[in-house]
Each structure stands twice: as structure tokens, then as C-alpha cells.
Design brief:
Butyryl-CoA Dehydrogenase, subunit A, domain 3; Butyryl-Coa Dehydrogenase, subunit A, domain 1; FAD; Acyl-CoA_Oxase/DH_mid-dom_sf; AcylCo_DH-like_C; about 375 residues; AcylCoA_DH/ox_N_sf; 13 helices; Butyryl-CoA Dehydrogenase, subunit A, domain 2; 3 domains; oxidoreductase; single chain; about 15% strand; 8 strands
Length: about 375
């Protein structure tokens, strides 16, 4: 069994030809804006990975999806991050209740059209809860009119649909959260430059601005969420999917460095084996969470578990990254930008919500027997 063989076989099963096509393109080209990776991803049927088979999708399990994301991350960290946002959005829609079976019609449409979904769900802002939506909406003539901005928003320039959380005031004056689906060509939706770093620039993480964008009622899901501190069932499930898939993607980027060390064969066997052991142990933790997800585990306990695993793998990625670059040596660092780029890309995981700093007190409270807060 070769290193990463299981992951790449799983990727080949669900997206035939994609791994070889990505491997044939220089890393620097895959990571730049306007890269070919997203087009290759779509052509291989990538958007359908987590759409249930009954709705025309590939029906991958959480375990299979985790392996796919690790494999993609080894070839293109930007594609790993961008496709995570799509898969997380699709998985959230699959678990949402839109009433009258409309969620299945929507998923069937996404599968049939091979559509890409961007995620406009809330993220951390200084002084605000990460569960508090960035967008606001009000009902006018039967439509929800949405205004606001989401930045960064991966897949901003390639998306077919935007899924987003929106703050809506109900008739009783309470602020509730809605989940909306917005076609990318909707009047009032604009894309503006935002991402200035060359690292992960291929993920298209620019700003999406909405100004009085009308969303038909059939594309709006009103939730029961009014608490920006405790996630509801839909938010909890979304967090579990996101943390699992995004962590696997970044682990893939670190494993690309391990693969280079193994291919070079210059470092002492003890050192090379130590890298593989660290990488495989980290993946085993992620697979454990994925298997629990497939077995039906959910809720606060599952979210706490996946967060603990995410932070543990985050630490492992840091150790793998530093040691792999050192073992590759100065000439490899000088002779190609790939190792330096992958090393920089690995750092991205620590910036995805919720950060360890943000969650430390909440996790301590949870393991002392109190409800898990995320906001």
C-alpha cells in the first residue's frame, strides 16, 4: 500500500480522472486566480459528491468524502478549500427542512446541472458572534429582500448558487435566522476583489455584495434559531461537516510535503517514518469522526468531538510542515517554490472558524457539563 493510495483510489471512484489531471498541472498554476482546477473539478462530477444517490448525486459517505478531500488537498490546497465550501453547503441543504420535499427538488437540480454552491454563512467578526449572519433580509411582496456582504467568500467567481444565512425579524419582533439559496446572476449581486494574498488565491475568496436582492419564498428556509451563542441542529450539522472536510483538505496539503520527503529518500528512515506516522495518525482521528457521523452521531457531543479532533490535527499539520520542509533541505527550498507554498498554505487551517482561541473557554465549559456555546 503506497502512501495516500486509499485516498486517491477513493477520489478516482467519485471523480474519475481528476487526480491525474491535477497532477499534470504545475502547483503554481493550480493556485493562481483563474486556474483550471475548478473547471476540472466540475467536469469530473465533483459537485455531486455529497448529494444523495436518490437525488442524482454520488451519495458519498462522510468517510469517503474525508478521504476525497485529503487527496484533493495534496494536489491543490485552493481547490480543497473551495470545494469544501461547496460540499458543506450541499450537506447542509440535504439535512435542512424546506418543506413539501422541495429540498430534494433543489438537490436534484444541483446534481442535474452540476452546479457549484458558494457559502455565505456567518463567520467570525470582531465583537460579533460567529453565528450572527452577515446578511439581513425583510419580506416585501412575498419575497425576502436581502442586503449585506460576505467576505471572504470562496467560489465567488465560479459559483452558480449562493447559499447564505440571513437575519430576519419576524412578526413578533424576534430576530430569526433564515437560510437562502440565491442564483449567482440575480440582480443586485456583485463580486468585488478582496483576497490580496497569493496563498490560496485559487479558491476565489473575494467579496460578495448583495443590495436588495429578491429571493423567492420557495428558496428561503426559516429556522428556529434566535440564539447567536448556541447552534441549532442545522448549524451544528453544518459545523461538523465543515470542520471534518476542511481539516482533511489542509492535512492533504501537509501530506504533499510528506510525499516529497518520501520521494527524495535522502532523510534518515526514522525521520521519514515519523512523518508518515504523524500524518496517518492525524487521518485516523478524522476517519474516526467520519465513521461516527456515518453511524448517525450528531448534536453537541459530536460537534465537541470534531472540534477537538480539528485542533489536534491542526497541531499535527504544524509539526509535519516544519519537519518536512527541514528534511527536504535548502536546495529543494531554493530550487522550487512548491515546498514554500505548501508550507504557507498549511497555516490556513488556524484561521477558519471557530478558532481555538475563540472556543477554548466554551470547550472547558462543555466538558464541565454545560451546553456547548459556539458564538
Amino acid at each position: 500500500m503506497r502512501f495516500l493510495e486509499t485516498e486517491r483510489q477513493t477520489l478516482e471512484k467519485f471523480m474519475p480522472g481528476l487526480d491525474g489531471q491535477l497532477a499534470a498541472v504545475p502547483l503554481a498554476e493550480l493556485e493562481r486566480p483563474g486556474n483550471p482546477a475548478l473547471a476540472l473539478f466540475k467536469a469530473s462530477g465533483g459537485p455531486n459528491l455529497l448529494i444523495p444517490a436518490d437525488q442524482g448525486g454520488a451519495g458519498a459517505t462522510a468517510l469517503e468524502a474525508t478521504r476525497v478531500m485529503r487527496a484533493i488537498g495534496t494536489r491543490s490546497p485552493s481547490l480543497g478549500v473551495a470545494s469544501t465550501m461547496h460540499h458543506f453547503s450541499v450537506a447542509s441543504l440535504a439535512e435542512a427542512s424546506l418543506g413539501d420535499g422541495f429540498e430534494w427538488m433543489l438537490l436534484e437540480g444541483i446534481a442535474a446541472g452540476n452546479l457549484l454552491l458558494a457559502s455565505g454563512f456567518a463567520e467570525g467578526r470582531t465583537g460579533a458572534s460567529i453565528l450572527a449572519p452577515n446578511l439581513r433580509g425583510e419580506w416585501r411582496d412575498g419575497n425576502l429582500v436581502v442586503t449585506g456582504a460576505k467576505k471572504p467568500c470562496s467560489l465567488s467567481r465560479s459559483m452558480d448558487l449562493l447559499t447564505a444565512s440571513v437575519a430576519v425579524t419576524d412578526e413578533g419582533g424576534r430576530e430569526r435566522m433564515a437560510v437562502v439559496v440565491i442564483p449567482s446572476d440575480s440582480p443586485g449581486l456583485e463580486i468585488r476583489p478582496f483576497w490580496s494574498n497569493f496563498v490560496l488565491a485559487g479558491a476565489e475568496s473575494d467579496e460578495v455584495v448583495l443590495k436588495d436582492v429578491e429571493v423567492p419564498k420557495r428558496l428561503v428556509v426559516m429556522t428556529d434559531s434566535t440564539d447567536h451563542q448556541r447552534p441549532d441542529q442545522l448549524q451544528t450539522s453544518g459545523f461538523i461537516w465543515f470542520e471534518l472536510l476542511v481539516t482533511a483538505s489542509y492535512l492533504g496539503a501537509a501530506c504533499a510535503l510528506v510525499e516529497q520527503v518520501l520521494a527524495a529518500g535522502r532523510a534518515d528512515a526514522v525521520e521519514r517514518a515519523a512523518l508518515v506516522i504523524e500524518a496517518e495518525s492525524a487521518m485516523a482521528m478524522l476517519e474516526g469522526v467520519a465513521r461516527a457521523k456515518d453511524a448517525g452521531e450528531q448534536g453537541e457531543e459530536m460537534l465537541a468531538e470534531v472540534l477537538c479532533v480539528r485542533y489536534a490535527v491542526q497541531d499535527a499539520i504544524g509539526r509535519i510542515n516544519r519537519r518536512a520542509v527541514e528534511l527536504l533541505g535548502g536546495m529543494a527550498y531554493i530550487g522550487s517554490s512548491d515546498a514554500a507554498y505548501l508550507s504557507a498554505a498549511c497555516a490556513g487551517l488556524m484561521f477558519h472558524p471557530p478558532s481555538r482561541t475563540h472556543m477554548s473557554e466554551q470547550l472547558c465549559e462543555h466538558f464541565a457539563g454545560r451546553p456547548l456555546r459556539v458564538g
